[in-house]
Design the sequence.
């Protein structure tokens, strides 16, 4: 009976709303434009795609010399391409011994070219040379009795820090980059500031600030490299500046924050102060550019955007058009 | 105004239509709270309350909470990582309806198209939340003991009574290894449930099995007692698995019933067993057992002819029980020897399983004792190509490995091209005769070369390996032609024994060459004895006897400073480089003509040096003789090769040079009238045997009458010594013979002192050029350069220019002026001066 009431109320409400819309449509020719174009677009020009028998890849990072490292996690490999997307080599296979992976998710390349892989299934971070030669690995400790789930890693040479996301335990761990000694951690489960519900990917800007996607809290939290809370970007919803499934985050040369939403299939751009700026657009259609489950991202010093589309099994490379 | 009216009408109609859809799809308890809408995307305010899309996404009218995209938005690793397990195409089917026969309980909702979705089995509301939505993604009902699986897949439930693999507790221990690989057991001990073999998500294998069954591995995890290999790698003699069938073809009908093969067509457990929905046979077999025989014979159709043979124990041993304790009547005609997953008989003696299986009956005290193999038998347990004699002339195997059609077997009994000869190489125990499907069950009827379970009738069977011996057909040694009434050792006529069986008896022959004839000779030489079995005065080959003055045997050529590539034999008949000359050294009893295979009848043909079962052709080129007598080989195509100079001439047994060969003109290998040199000619004038041999031709009535020296003797009484020049092979070799032709070191010279009748030119060790030319002092069969002749010792260097003095009386020393003074004496006199 209650349901019937709701339905009836809803029907009446919808009828009047529709009638009002119709009248507005008659009086305002901008009605359609407001819906379709009433949001700023930051256009990206498609350069090329990288496909190489990927199986649900998750993350990408690019070295200073332009080598593109794609984490092809379900294949348990890191695949390396030159700056034009030509395959060079790969390393890794499924397993638990050194140099082997168990469905890793996050990757980072530091300024010296060393490659860091967050090996989620093995609960470790592994370090490789630029040529993929195994160097070392270290364990990401469990929280209480629950095994760690490292889903992303950032090597901060400036501050000699290594940041690791522990997704299942909702913590961010800070290691000494040189000794891999655990220095500190912050976070914990919850929805308040500095709490997470499934932190996933990270990015670091030129100032050393960390941007961490907080998936179920549908936001990105910002911290200093020492783990002090700075601000929150986004929030729950599907409106501009909001997230349904925030996943990947990257910082462009203007310190703008690019954040993927894997369900909505869009990439939103935020100003450095956390204010919504734009959404990536397609210059050919002059509309919002839609992606197939966009995940990890990387933006290089030339403002090239490298985007992993997990369901597309590809990495798409774009040039971000300067709209400032 | 009219436009406004139509627009309002249009929008109102559209709204009502949307309203209708919405009303149908409206959730019963919609809630736009984030905790709900984070999965119930459609409940987000802007869609649900405002009924519109946002700047980023369009309006969401359809229910998507159960769509895989929603699930994957968290199960992509950002909350739970199900990429490999669920989203890698290794998941339970979604986006499609369940099979028509399957009844899905109402608690497992399908989507509005009737398709299965994630939400069919999963719900966020199944159990209370531990800390929030992230912990509540559970199944809709308990899957304890696979209850949830069984509620839909009820046709797979119920165990063998319902044609399915047993389910529930079992006495069999589920291996720990299987559990480590993901098998889940139900409550209690060894409780088999669906998830013991299957996983719902993440299996790359067929039917979501935790391991593939296409290589039988999953089945063998528990049913290891059915494995054809033991843990330590030994072969169990069970029905093969994981092997590609050779001759057997899996019937289409069986495939239609559900029989499966491995990825490369191998026989696997599921080729015979169907473990779900099997209404055919209680052992989950795909074949109805019937009277017992149909099971095996479904695939092994070529074995069906066993039924009317003595190997069907219904006829020959109905009370015999196999190791399973069952008679043939109880377990079928295959069961006395074969059980699919057990040994049926205790194997007999032997090294290979196939032979041992035969001997389990064909041995003393067992049911086929009457058909016991006596004496010596064809070799088994050997690889024919391993023992193939490197001696080309005596090679036992005439077929290339790749062309051998008879089966070889591994020690374990599996067919193996690199395997061994076993009983089953020649015998197919399932078929009495290869050219007919008829059997034979009468106890008093014995097999012959066409029956006896042979894979081919003999001699075709023998020919499969020994094809190189089959030039014997239609030759004098083909006793079917030359001695059809002659019986072998077992009393069989050639028509009964077959071609090969006249001399070789495969089972029950005599030692060495499984000889099938009475051995008369006791020479101590095995292979020689074989020939003498027939070639004796009472034998069937009594016209071809080897008498006293024949080529020597029982010696090794090396004793005479000779070497050969012809086969030599030890006393046991084995080919040996240290062996002795035997008949078979020069003769191949299986081939009349060494250069070609004659298929037509040629058993009446009289032999010459070109055939006569010789291993090498001996005419016109004397290849056989010169294989040993290499120094005599140079006679060919010289004036002493009568093929060149006197082709019509006949030796003393009436053979022309073409018939006798170049050597046979002067030497008769068998049955010569003369012992010395097996001389085949007469003797001429002279006092010394050597001279008499030469003089037979070099006489006024001889064929060499134009080459008669006026004199050929050294003055008597002047004995010559050849000391230092009596070493054969040296350039100054100058032999001296006594009257009877024996070598000596003091005596008088004779023709062969200076002449080597086999070599035209002492400087050229080669055959002649086939042209009759006048000789000079440099050739003319002289043994050495004239300056090396012994003559110079006495006659000085003058002899070099007076070489004819020996044959020309005018050149004799005594006719010349001045006294004859031996040169060494002359030198002494000069020294004295």
Sequence:
């Amino acid at each position: 009976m209650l349901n019937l009431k709701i339905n009836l109320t809803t029907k009446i409400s919808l009828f009047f709303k529709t009638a009002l819309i119709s009248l507005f449509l008659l009086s305002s020719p901008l009605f359609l434009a407001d819906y379709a174009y009433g949001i700023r677009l930051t256009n990206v020009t498609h350069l090329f795609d990288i496909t190489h028998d990927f199986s649900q890849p998750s993350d990408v990072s690019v070295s200073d010399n332009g080598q593109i490292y794609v984490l092809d996690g379900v294949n348990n490999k890191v695949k390396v391409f030159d700056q034009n997307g030509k395959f060079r080599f790969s390393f890794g296979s499924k397993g638990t011994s050194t140099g082997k992976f168990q469905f890793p998710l996050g990757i980072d390349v530091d300024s010296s070219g060393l490659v860091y892989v967050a090996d989620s299934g093995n609960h470790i971070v592994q370090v490789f040379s630029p040529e993929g030669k195994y160097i070392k690995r270290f364990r990401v400790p469990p929280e209480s009795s629950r095994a760690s789930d490292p889903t992303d890693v950032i090597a901060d040479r400036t501050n000699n820090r290594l940041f690791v996301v522990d997704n299942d335990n909702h913590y961010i761990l800070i290691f000494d980059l040189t000794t891999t000694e655990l220095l500190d951690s912050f976070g914990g489960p919850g929805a308040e500031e500095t709490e997470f519900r499934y932190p996933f990917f990270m990015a670091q800007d030129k100032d050393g600030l960390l941007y961490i996607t907080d998936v179920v809290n549908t936001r990105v939290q910002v911290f200093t490299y020492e783990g002090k809370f700075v601000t929150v970007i986004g929030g729950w919803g599907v409106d501009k500046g909001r997230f349904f499934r925030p996943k990947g985050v990257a910082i462009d040369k203007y310190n703008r924050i690019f954040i993927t939403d894997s369900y909505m299939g869009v990439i939103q751009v935020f100003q450095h102060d956390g204010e919504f700026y734009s959404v990536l657009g397609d210059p050919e259609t002059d509309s919002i550019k839609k992606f197939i489950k966009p995940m990890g991202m990387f933006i290089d010093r030339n403002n090239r955007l490298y985007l992993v589309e997990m369901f597309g099994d590809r990495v798409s490379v774009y040039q971000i058009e300067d709209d400032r | 105004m009219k436009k406004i009216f139509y627009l309002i009408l249009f929008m109102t109609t559209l709204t009502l239509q949307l309203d209708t859809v919405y009303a149908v799809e409206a959730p019963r308890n919609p809630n736009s709270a984030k905790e709900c809408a984070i999965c119930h995307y459609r409940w987000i305010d802007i869609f649900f309350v405002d009924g519109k899309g946002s700047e980023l996404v369009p309006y969401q009218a359809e229910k998507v909470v159960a769509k895989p995209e929603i699930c994957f938005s968290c199960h992509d690793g950002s909350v739970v990582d199900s990429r490999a397990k669920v989203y890698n195409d290794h998941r339970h089917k979604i986006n499609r309806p369940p099979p028509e026969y399957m009844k899905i309980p109402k608690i497992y909702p399908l989507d509005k198209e009737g398709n299965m979705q994630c939400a069919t089995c999963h719900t966020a509301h199944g159990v209370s939340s531990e800390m929030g939505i992230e912990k509540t993604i559970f199944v809709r009902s308990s899957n304890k003991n696979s209850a949830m699986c069984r509620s839909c897949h009820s046709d797979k439930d119920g165990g063998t009574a319902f044609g399915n693999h047993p389910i529930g507790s079992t006495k069999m221990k589920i291996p720990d290894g299987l559990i480590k690989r993901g098998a889940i057991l139900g409550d209690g001990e060894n409780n088999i449930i669906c998830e013991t073999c299957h996983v719902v998500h993440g299996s790359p294998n067929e039917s979501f099995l935790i391991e593939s069954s296409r290589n039988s591995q999953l089945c063998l995890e528990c049913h290891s007692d059915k494995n054809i290999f033991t843990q330590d790698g030994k072969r169990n003699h069970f029905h093969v698995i994981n092997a590609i069938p050779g001759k057997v073809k899996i019937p289409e009908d069986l495939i239609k019933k559900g029989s499966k093969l491995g990825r490369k067509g191998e026989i696997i457990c599921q080729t015979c067993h169907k473990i779900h929905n099997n209404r055919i046979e209680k052992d989950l077999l795909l074949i109805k057992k019937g009277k017992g025989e149909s099971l095996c014979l479904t695939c092994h159709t070529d074995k069906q002819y066993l039924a009317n043979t003595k190997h069907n124990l219904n006829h020959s041993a109905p009370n015999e029980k196999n190791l399973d304790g069952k008679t043939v009547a109880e377990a079928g005609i295959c069961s006395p020897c074969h059980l699919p997953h057990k040994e049926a008989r205790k194997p007999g003696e032997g090294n290979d399983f196939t032979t041992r299986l035969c001997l389990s009956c064909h041995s003393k005290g067992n049911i086929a004792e009457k058909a016991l193999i006596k004496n010596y038998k064809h070799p088994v347990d050997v690889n024919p190509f391993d023992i193939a004699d490197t001696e080309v002339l005596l090679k036992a195997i005439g077929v290339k490995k790749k062309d051998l059609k008879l089966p070889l077997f591994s020690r374990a009994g599996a067919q193996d091209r690199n395997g061994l000869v076993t009983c089953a190489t020649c015998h197919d125990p399932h078929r009495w005769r290869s050219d007919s499907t008829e059997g034979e069950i009468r106890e008093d009827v014995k097999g012959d070369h066409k029956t006896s379970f042979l894979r081919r009738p003999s001699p075709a069977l023998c020919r499969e390996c020994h094809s190189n011996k089959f030039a014997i057909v239609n030759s004098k040694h083909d006793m079917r032609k030359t001695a059809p009434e002659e019986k072998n050792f077992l009393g069989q006529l050639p028509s009964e024994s077959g071609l090969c069986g006249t001399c070789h008896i495969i089972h029950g022959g005599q030692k060495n060459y499984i000889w099938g004839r009475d051995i008369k000779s006791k020479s101590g030489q095995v292979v020689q004895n074989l020939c003498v079995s027939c070639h004796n005065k009472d034998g069937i080959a009594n016209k071809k006897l080897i008498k006293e003055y024949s080529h020597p045997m029982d010696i090794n050529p090396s004793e005479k400073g000779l070497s050969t590539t012809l086969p030599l034999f030890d006393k046991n008949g084995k080919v040996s480089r240290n062996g002795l000359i035997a008949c078979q050294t020069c003769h191949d009893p299986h081939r009349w003509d060494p250069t070609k295979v004659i298929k037509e009848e040629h058993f009446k043909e009289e032999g010459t040096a070109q055939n006569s079962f010789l291993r090498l052709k001996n005419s016109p080129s004397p290849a056989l003789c010169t294989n040993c007598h290499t120094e005599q080989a140079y006679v060919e195509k010289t004036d002493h090769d009568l093929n060149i100079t006197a082709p019509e001439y006949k030796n003393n047994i009436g053979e022309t040079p073409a018939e006798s060969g170049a050597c046979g003109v002067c030497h008769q290998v068998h049955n010569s009238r003369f012992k010395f040199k097996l001389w085949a000619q007469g003797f001429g004038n002279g006092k010394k045997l050597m001279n008499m041999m030469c003089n037979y031709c070099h006489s006024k009535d001889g064929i060499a009458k134009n080459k008669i020296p006026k004199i050929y003797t050294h003055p008597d009484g002047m004995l010559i010594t050849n000391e230092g020049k009596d070493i054969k092979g040296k350039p100054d070799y100058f032999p001296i013979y006594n009257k009877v032709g024996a070598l000596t070191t003091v005596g008088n010279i004779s023709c062969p002192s200076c002449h080597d009748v086999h070599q035209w030119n002492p400087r050229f060790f080669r055959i002649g050029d086939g042209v009759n030319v006048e000789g000079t002092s440099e050739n003319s069969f002289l043994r050495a350069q004239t300056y090396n002749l012994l003559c110079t010792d006495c006659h000085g260097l003058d002899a070099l220019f007076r070489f004819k003095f020996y044959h020309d009386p005018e050149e004799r020393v005594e006719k010349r002026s001045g006294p004859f003074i031996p040169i060494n004496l002359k030198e002494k006199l000069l020294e004295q001066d």
